[in-house]
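Recap for those who missed Tuesday's class. We walked through two folding examples back to back. For each one, the amino acid string is listed first and its predicted structure tokens come directly after. Nothing is annotated here on purpose, so try labeling regions yourself before you check the end of the notes.
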Amino acid sequence: QVQLVESGGGLVQAGASLRLSCAASGRAVSNSGMGWFRQAPGMEREFVAGISRSGSTNYADSVKGRFIISRDNNKNTVYLQMSGLKPEDTAVYYCAADRIGYYVHTNPAHYDYWGQGTQVTVSS
């Protein structure tokens, strides 16, 4: 059974930094494509960042230069380092795993497993 557990969300002021963690069990993150998505109230879930099996990364234009995705294979954990946070980054952030994982997919339909989400709120 694959489980993804996100943590690290919170309430911060604009300009602050946060690091989200996604701890995986039941499947190695090194054998998966891992993605971070977010969903604001009334909005569709949107791609934020992803990392493929080989370590290639991809980012949404809105977060390029501010967010960094990484993984620690020993801890079986994926991270999303967020800096320069803006109020428009406010959303529930979800971690997802793609069993194939050779490419970083931006469409959430390609992902097989999802975490429960962690709230990030950025005040102005």
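Example two. Treat it independently of the first, because the proteins are unrelated.
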Amino acid sequence: VQLQASGGGLVQGGGSLRLSCAASGIIISINDMAWYRQAPGKERELVATVTSDGIANYADAVKGRFTISRDNAKYTTYLQMNRLKPNDAAVYYCKMNVQTYRYEGAYYATLDFWGQGTLVTVSS
């Protein structure tokens, strides 16, 4: 399973960006989808999660400004980021908990997969 994140870029403070993350490969089902971010010199932190039923949770720092969503048919999650602040600048990573099938060994497994990260830069 591979995750491909996109949508990062440079935006002025107060602006908006929409990140996307699409999964591909052998996918039986996807449980939680999530977005994390990591700023320079800081640890990776959880930004938002969405369950398979569409229930979303957010870090306090982004509540009311960011919206996570998912399209199950496309194996894709989105992060709509509004009213961006300079301290939102980071590399954003998506993560999905995926049930997949392993041909080597012939078994099903539920594993976490990460995207490669997409850079968000916010100018003040």
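Answers for example two:
The radius of gyration is 15 Å.
The mean pLDDT is 96.
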